[in-house]
Amino acid sequence: MKKINPSIIYPIENWQVSESEYTLETNQRSETIFTVGNGYIGIRGCTEETMPELENHTLPGTYINGFYETAPIIYGEAAYGYAENHQTILNVPNALPFEITVDGEKITLFSGKITDYSRKLSFKTGLFERQFTWTSEKTGKQLKIIFSRLASFTRKHVAAIKINIQPVNFMAADIQVTSSLQGAVTNQEHDGDPRAGAAFSGQVLNTEKVIQQSGILGLFQRTTSSKLEIASGIKHSIPGSVSQKQDFWSESWQFDGSTSIEISKFIGYATSEKDNIQTLCTELEKASKAGFAQLVQEQVDYLDLFWNRADIGVTGDDALQQALRFNAFHLLQSVGRDGRTNIAAKGVTGEGYEGHYFWDTEIFIFPFFAFTQPEIAKKLLEYRYSILPNAKKRARDLACSGALFPWRTINGEEASAYYPAGTAQIHINADIMHALKLYTEVTNDTDFLNEKGLEMLIETSRFYMDYGDFVEGRGFTINGVTGPDEYTALINNNTYTNMMVKDQLEFLLTSLTDEARIKFNISDIEIKNWTLAAKNMYIHRTNSALIGQDDSFLNKGKWPFETTREDQYPLLLHFHPMKIYQKQVLKQADLILAMVLQSERFSDEEKQVNYDYYEPLTTHDSSLSPATHAIIAAELGRMEQAVSFFYYTARTDLDDYHHNVKDGVHTAAMAGSWLTIVYGFAGLRIKNGELHFQPRLPDKWTGYQFRITFQGRIIEVQTTTSGTNFTLIQGNSIQLFSDGNPIQL
Amino acid sequence: MKKINPSIIYPIENWQVSESEYTLETNQRSETIFTVGNGYIGIRGCTEETMPELENHTLPGTYINGFYETAPIIYGEAAYGYAENHQTILNVPNALPFEITVDGEKITLFSGKITDYSRKLSFKTGLFERQFTWTSEKTGKQLKIIFSRLASFTRKHVAAIKINIQPVNFMAADIQVTSSLQGAVTNQEHDGDPRAGAAFSGQVLNTEKVIQQSGILGLFQRTTSSKLEIASGIKHSIPGSVSQKQDFWSESWQFDGSTSIEISKFIGYATSEKDNIQTLCTELEKASKAGFAQLVQEQVDYLDLFWNRADIGVTGDDALQQALRFNAFHLLQSVGRDGRTNIAAKGVTGEGYEGHYFWDTEIFIFPFFAFTQPEIAKKLLEYRYSILPNAKKRARDLACSGALFPWRTINGEEASAYYPAGTAQIHINADIMHALKLYTEVTNDTDFLNEKGLEMLIETSRFYMDYGDFVEGRGFTINGVTGPDEYTALINNNTYTNMMVKDQLEFLLTSLTDEARIKFNISDIEIKNWTLAAKNMYIHRTNSALIGQDDSFLNKGKWPFETTREDQYPLLLHFHPMKIYQKQVLKQADLILAMVLQSERFSDEEKQVNYDYYEPLTTHDSSLSPATHAIIAAELGRMEQAVSFFYYTARTDLDDYHHNVKDGVHTAAMAGSWLTIVYGFAGLRIKNGELHFQPRLPDKWTGYQFRITFQGRIIEVQTTTSGTNFTLIQGNSIQLFSDGNPIQL
């Protein structure tokens, strides 16, 4: 495995992440880390005060999940069926700005003397707090300033900021505070890294209306190309009566410095509602009426319930403990839960990967929600169902029947501009169906399966049947695909893909109802073909336990790791794809991932042999890779490797392993840390609809614990040095298995 | 094989192509057919008179071989090592325009009554003639107008037009003639077909100087981005003294209609010379001094010599006879012969494929020149040597040592914007080396081999050794390539590629000199590796005579030909590449081409079995395909198929099989017709440096004949129904073989 040299950036704390120093060089990274989000709104942890010193060191970003601009994809050489449009998550009007002046002097982090600085995000309260003491170098006057910020978990359209200004060493001053909404925002410019940046430049939000009613200052805007609407606004609340001035999109107040000042700013965004202006105004009214304290209380209550089902921990390693909670919290902040949105690779924390949804959702993130917040998991599947019409159309683009889900998308259209590592990853269909199967097993929600799930299952299977071929002497083959490993492209019979499709077809055959057969016009021949394909799915096994990642992988030369310099990783930024594809080298887990998801289809010997073969060939240049390896390493009892990989996935963002946290968090890696504990160290697998564990505890730790929700129950799993305890926290009695032994709870 | 329905467009004539009707719908195609060129200048067969009616039915194009504009290639998703710039052959100032008015009425093909119209191009005189009789519908006055045009084969920088205006039924009229040079020209706009159109729009030639000296009207211009210079100009000559008016770039004359009018217009272009303006003026002076008649005489003399070595014919099929000469003539018109240019896929007849040079040169066109005009063949290799520095740099882009020639280029830089069907075709190296070997065998020119050839041979071999791998149990493998068949991409061990590389390595090992070993720092280990790779080159043979096109081809499903409609060809315009790549379907000959070029490496049984297997899977969507199939069909005695394929390649342009002659001729298909006669029906192969023939005569024909130049000799081969005669036309006695029997000439 590639060596990582972790170095702790933020103090290790139990229920929060914080910093006590402000440095320009790392500010943009911290803005990502301190993002507040509610799955719809995301506001990066930027300062309320604007300062010229920040230029190039800040990404003042507020994002709305699913709100994007489109731009035509330009190809050097186009071809039939290529994806047509970029979709890019949009930076929306910035509601942060506060300007504070004292005796005419503007308070910023660079204008006076700053002491007692801190920025912190609490996982228990959902509150982001930033504070510092400012001392004028001219007058010596000192003020303590505290900003509290939240994106309401209970009010989709609402965020809020409370600013508290305390005079420290004076009784009188001319204090002026201005709060505004900035509508003229742009996205980040592309800087050459294919993983970051937008396809257009300049402002694409056009203001159609200024909103001014009931103290709300707002804007109604429309995107230039995608024509999506957004209403954004602010409304202030301030105790007592103060001198006040209101402008189009700012409001100013004058204070005499004799007492503390407190201003609450309620922030609203509405998109894709029937009446966005109305929604905005109603929600802002309600929020301001409730007040900031009430909003905080709602956050606390919501998070109490969340942690009751989702808390997870390691004892004996506080850095991992912090990371597990940081990750779970950020997942909650990132996940769309309205059935029309999903969870982007960067959540709502940045513009990396253009805010697209990938398979990351279903394979890495979905289990976390399925086992802790199944109602959110269902919404993720509903999103997929909502884009099924696009997926059907996409299958036609490939001259196939059925449906092919887009490799990367926001609005349901394929947005991958490089099909060999995009559209060719047709395993996306099976990945989504894997999530459907998991959801069904975890919840027993057959209603969803029958109402929406089956249609997806049938149509995606139809695509595979059409794209694949029965080839004499081989069985059912699926050629011309790219598997999970993006350092190998356009190959035949990717084992991961074929096994996942086999599983999906088996799931389909057992789930099929008579109603569905009639509704979807399924003939006996079609069922026979599904059966045959599932039974005779081609897997590239060899005459040893070694399995080919695909038909050709084992015949390639090995990547020259010995002559590859440290600064040449990730390979994709330093080598031509042709050169990478022609060698035995992996970006990320591929067959190893199949060993996690299709555990029972591999013998123990196969797991060992293939792990030993593929792991040394894997660069882990993808943040998706370490968790998978951690899980299998744990299963194989390679505890040191497992812990090492676990560190990698768990602290990817907190320790900025990929040096790109400034562009946003890595939601899949975050979820990977949960997966590693639950699937890896606790060894959870579902077999025949029942829970099986195989708990292992690394030497370095004294224990780990987590809770899962399963078929209406909440079960706590607690491993210590003296063994594992399973506790039924809620729900009816159930039988589960630990190391194969039945346990009745 | 795909059915073609040939339909003769132009009358079948022996030494010319002509039309006697002018139709707007097909005009652009005819402009291509009637192009005059000299390998440097190309002028499409457009009208001298300009008419609004022509809009969208004309491509007024004049091209200079090797003169191009660049533009950055924009990728939907860029990656390391991608080609950076488009290069596009440029439409240069148009020197055709003549405007004729009679009594104020402008003469065009649409303004009066047109009779006796014709347009013709003679292969014996190299002259393009256009004539018609025009009758005024107002006055009834009738004039006969004849335009003669040539691009001088003996004067690289010169073209010329003579206009002859004859009063038919009147003695007096106010006749005004204006001739001009139009500097404001643009390229064709991209129309969605990836095979046509430029990467930029608008005018990119910027005029820096107006040339006015010694009666020359000219322009000195520079391209916006590539910064290349071009000087273009016209100079007129007119017998007697007439009233004349000169403008910046036009000249007008007044006539009284009493006698015939004759005006000669000498046209010059100079690029990439030390002093382009000086060259232009000198060459125009000399040409106008010589006069039009002298230029015609030079053409005739030049073509006499050309046909003496290059004439080729079929007796018993006049359509084929015409095509063979049309093709040979156009190849001569298209081929760059200054060592700094090459032959574009469309020659100098259009903008298709952006004027790029491909492997078409070495594999399809080169043999024609090597066996008929070896001095031109040498220039083609010198061009490759001139871009060897670029090829070395390109190899570095792929993290390899040695040199990799660009798949498509003008200036030596890779210009392929889709690497799976571009850069991945690394067989380009071996193709060029195949031409080097052929040139050396045909000419015995070891000086060229030692001075320039060996360096290319060594550096391209070094690339292969680095890109390929010795893989245990397989030998030397070359993975991650695309072979000639572009409907299969990024595969391993393409048989064509591997065999060509094997041959190149063997050629290198026998050609290597002690001087070269020292000069190029070649170690014993390097030689040992070349030897091992050549000896153990992996070829994907099966346990039958069937050979895999590559490692995976035979394991794929077959293309659904039965459900593919006629209007869905070419597949590349109607199916996603992924879908095409995953099936057994070929765009063009691949293994079959290896059977032509590496004939001795296949048994007779292998040739039969593989032809029968691959041919039905081949769409021939590439114009490169039919000739290759014709050759092997002839070798296998499948004479009907051979003739059918021969028709396809021979009359590709005359009968416009691909419906895109409007964008330019298909030089490789043209050369394919020569190849089919010589390699196919006459069965020419070089074995151990000696000529071997295996002549066969299709039933339909009464004979065929051609001449080849070989090691200083000219040999005529004439097959009739009573057998084949070999005649030594020039040079020393030589032994050759026919059907294995030695013949002494």
From TrEMBL, chains A, B:
GO terms for molecular function: carbohydrate binding; glycosyltransferase activity; hydrolase activity, hydrolyzing O-glycosyl compounds. Residues 684-745 form the Glycoside hydrolase family 65 C-terminal domain. InterPro entries: 6-hairpin_glycosidase_sf, 6hp_glycosidase-like_sf, Gal_mutarotase_sf_dom, GH65_N, Glyco_hydro_65_C, Glyco_hydro_65_M, Glyco_hydro_65_N, Malt_Pase/Glycosyl_Hdrlase. Residues 19-273 form the Glycoside hydrolase family 65 N-terminal domain. It comes from the Bacteria. Pfam families: Glyco_hydro_65C (PF03633), Glyco_hydro_65m (PF03632), Glyco_hydro_65N (PF03636). Residues 325-674 form the Glycoside hydrolase family 65 central catalytic domain. The active site is at E486. Keywords: Glycosyltransferase, Transferase. Substrate binds at W359, D360, K587, Q588. One of its GO terms (biological process) is carbohydrate metabolic process. PANTHER family: GLYCOSYL HYDROLASE-RELATED, PROTEIN-GLUCOSYLGALACTOSYLHYDROXYLYSINE GLUCOSIDASE. Belongs to the glycosyl hydrolase 65 family. This is Uncharacterized protein. It comes from Listeria weihenstephanensis.
